[in-house]
Amino acid sequence: MATAEITPAPVREAPSPGSADVTVTDPALVRRAVKAAALGNAMEWFDFGVYSYIAVTLGKVFFPSGSPTVQLLSTFGAFAAAFLVRPLGGLVFGPLGDRVGRQKILALTMIMMAAGTFAIGLIPSYGSIGVGAPLLLLAARLVQGFSTGGEYAGASTFIAEYAPDKRRGFLGSWLEFGTLAGYIGGAGLVTLMTALLSGDDLLSWGWRIPFLIAGPMGIVGLYLRMRLEETPAFAAEAGKAGNTGNTGKSGKSGTERPKVPLREMVAGQWRALLLCVGLVLVFNVTDYMLLSYMPSYLTSELKYDETHGLLVVLAVMALMMVVQPFAGALTDRVGRRPVIAAGCAGFLFLSVPALLLIRQGSLLAIGLGMGALGLLLVCFTASMPSALPALFPTRVRYGSLSIGFNVSVSLFGGTTPLVVTALIGATGNLMMPAYYMMAAAVIGGFAVWRMTESAGRPLPGSAPSVAPR
Q: What is the pTM of this model?
């Protein structure tokens, strides 16, 4: 067996003379990559989960008003503002990830994310400093949004480029397992505080606790990410640049590649970008609807007991965590397209029945409705971390995916709680969440119809990747 020496990726080798290069993965490195990426995602969504579940309290702390609806709209407005800067973060971190490496950028986004979340826990209330309080909250949310602009695309790219072709769906599914773990951590903590603290204690100091926890979590996540090596796919691209004499402005080659023009990331990938936007739209509208908006919907619109509502959502997420790895493995066997298509069809035909069940108000009915939506959402959470990176070639994967992902999340995903709350307020129709998910399912269905199956195949621009025998 002849070995192709490509520095600094010693795992790349050719199985026989004259054959194409093959990346033979290191199981220990793959496990470390999955853990570090999933933990960062867990921390990101721990914050978003806490923010959503404690939105009513935050509205009272930062946006005092005589109208609970205005308070909730203001709180979700600050929530949505973070998503408006995500494309800017993607424009900065994505191209950098394609130039200096995935690992370095993922470490940087971890630092910024932890700092922004920790800062929220230190902000004085509106009663202490007046209008400065919501302005500081907005500033912290903008830091979070900017950093997360490079987080998901980088983490999914990192796992996809480390994983063997035939196990990419299973290994990628652990990224969203981290998302669910973060949500459960946030929901569980808020539920515990709601049950143990009086309303006055929660309002005066208890709400700060979840945000202050982000400091230690960030240190642990940063430690894990700093111990990672660069992905074989990126190292091979950097090696090609070095071998052909291409260097950056610094004159260095090695693991730093020349800058890729933004035009190549956008205009050169326009079809893949449109597919990415459509897939991310259905993924994130349904995700934010179920995991971020529904707790507030149960409380503010249906007048359901807050603690019981959070417990139902917590149970649904626990169910999703159990199913997630099995669904990821299923995408390796039957393909990403059939699984994503099943999720789109399910949301199109079952959103109305599920929401009607939820509106019945009994614990059993709410559990059945939420559980059905949760299992449909798993079709996306198990597929997208492996399907989205496969839309783009290695040379522009981090940058193009960051742009497409964050544009879609900013316009459609993160704004879901705000838009649906406003639609209900304007129309008085409590079925708006179902109609919104159905519209997203139609768009997602068209995208999955046009996408190419990627299960079991090498990533575009990368050598085949196999597990060692």
A: 0.84
